Each structure stands twice: as C-alpha cells, then as structure tokens.
C-alpha cells in the first residue's frame, strides 16, 4: 500500500462539534475506526461497554473497533468535543520495535482503561495538534501532514498511557443497572426481551427502562443490539459462518441480522467476513 496515493481523508476523520443536549440524541457507536475523543465542555459521563467514566475538560477517551461507546449527558449544559477516528492499518507500518502505536487501544481488557487524564501541559500539546489538523488547507502536502499529526498524537497517548494510574475511577451506577449490564453481556445468545429481563430481575419493565435511560442515555434494546453486533464481529473473525454467527448472537431472524449488521457496521456480515484478511480486527 502506497500511502502517497491512499485516500488519507477517508482513513483519518477529524470532527469538532458542539451539541445542545436538549436537541440531540447521541446513541451508541460501534465502527471500524479506532477513536480518540477529547472533551472540551459539558457535564457528561462516557460509557464504554459496561463501564461509565466520569470525564471533565481535557480528558481523553480511547476506543477500538470492538468497544461500544457513547457520551451520557448529566444536564443540559452545552457539550463540545473533538473526535479523531482512524483506520488502524494506516499507522501500523510506522510501528517501531519499541513502540506499537495501537498498543494503548489493544493491550487492555475490553471496556477498561479507556480514560486518560492529561496534565495541563499535555492538554496544550493535544490542542496544538488538533488545531493543526483542523486548520489544514488542501495543498500538495496536506495529507502527509495530517498523517504526521495523527502519529504524533498516538506517540503521546502511548507514552501517557504507560504511566497512567491503573485504578479505574468509575461513576457509580444503581445495583440493578450493574447486574443488568453483566447479565446481558454474558447472555447475548438468549432471550433478552424487556419482558424476560423484568422477570429475571423481578422488576417492572418500565421502571427498568427508565433507570437505564436515566443513567446511560439510551434504551435497553439499542444497547443489546450493539452488543450483539460487537459479538458478531468477534465471532466472524474466529471463522464462524454468517448463519452460525446469527444464532450465536441471539438474532432469531436471519434477515433482520443482515439488516442490523449492515446498518451498524456499514457492510454485510458476508462481506465483512470476506474482508477479514485485509482488516485489523482485534
């Protein structure tokens, strides 16, 4: 692969965005790109897999292509963030014997150690690099610069990640919600309708839905869907057929599985499985 002719803009996507929490609904994310997230303003928690991270200005969240994630708004304050998404293959060839640029994304338990708290000088350095990317103008060398700024960010993140305190500072959630998330995670192939979950936990399904919505900012059905798609990606990478994957992930309707997978991932599960030799699936 010749990076000089590759579409860098498709492989590296930068976005700085302001939200009014009253006028937007940010749902779960699950995409093939790895993501660097930087909070500028807003009162939010950040949900990754089963964990809820309290975050503040200057905190960085890192997620790989197997981790579902989303911000959860605590109030109506204006929310602003920066995201930098990139396809992992574009940086692999810049690894050195002493540094794997994707190490901080992959060498950790799924849904854990996603938060990196920066020191003031580190915040300034991150903002400098983000601004460099944001202010790039199309010219003969801008794609090379864009890639260079990404690599600089990844070097910084990996250096900081190695020194970060491994004790997780997580937001507390009601015991019902913690148990519910654990149960869903361990039983994705089973019946997970609201009725079955309310029977399992001896709680009214409407109350359960309200608790989930209040703390996570989305509904239980969407969470289960994204968890099942995440598991499907993992199972397909292990060599299972599309039909077996559908059953193992709890989809009772094959056509619905095909539709939901394509809607979430962007391609059909058959094409995803066929492309595995050319993709970075971890």
From TrEMBL:
Keywords: DNA-binding, Transcription, Transcription regulation. Residues 178-275 form the HTH araC/xylS-type domain. It comes from the Bacteria. The keyword Transcription regulation applies. InterPro entries: Homeodomain-like_sf (IPR009057), HTH-like (IPR037923), HTH_AraC (IPR018060), HTH_AraC-typ_CS (IPR018062), RmlC-like_jellyroll (IPR014710). Pfam families: HTH_18 (PF12833). This is AraC family transcriptional regulator. It comes from Paenibacillus violae.
């Amino acid at each position: 692969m010749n990076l000089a002719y590759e579409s860098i803009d498709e492989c590296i996507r930068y976005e700085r965005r302001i939200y009014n929490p009253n006028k937007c609904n940010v749902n779960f994310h699950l995409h093939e790109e790895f993501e660097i997230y930087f909070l500028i303003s807003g009162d939010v928690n950040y949900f990754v897999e089963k964990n809820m991270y309290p975050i503040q200005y200057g905190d960085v969240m890192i997620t790989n292509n197997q981790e579902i994630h989303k911000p959860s708004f605590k109030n109506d304050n204006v929310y602003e963030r920066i995201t930098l998404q990139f396809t992992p293959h574009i940086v692999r060839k810049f690894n050195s014997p002493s540094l794997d640029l994707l190490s901080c994304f992959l060498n950790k338990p799924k849904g854990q150690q996603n938060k990196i708290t920066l020191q003031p000088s580190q915040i300034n350095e991150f903002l400098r690099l983000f601004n460099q990317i944001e202010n790039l103008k199309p010219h003969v060398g801008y794609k090379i610069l864009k890639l260079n700024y990404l690599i600089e960010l990844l070097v910084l993140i990996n250096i900081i990640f190695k020194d970060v305190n491994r004790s997780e500072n997580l937001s507390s959630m009601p015991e019902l919600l913690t148990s519910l998330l654990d149960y869903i995670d361990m039983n994705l192939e089973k019946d997970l309708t609201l009725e079955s979950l309310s029977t399992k936990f001896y709680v009214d399904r409407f109350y359960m839905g309200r608790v989930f919505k209040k703390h996570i900012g989305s509904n239980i059905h969407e969470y289960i869907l994204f968890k099942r798609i995440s598991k499907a990606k993992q199972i397909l990478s292990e060599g299972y057929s599309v039909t077996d994957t559908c059953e193992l992930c709890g989809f009772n309707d094959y056509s619905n599985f095909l539709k939901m997978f394509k809607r979430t991932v962007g391609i059909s599960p058959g094409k995803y499985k066929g492309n595995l030799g050319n993709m970075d699936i971890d």
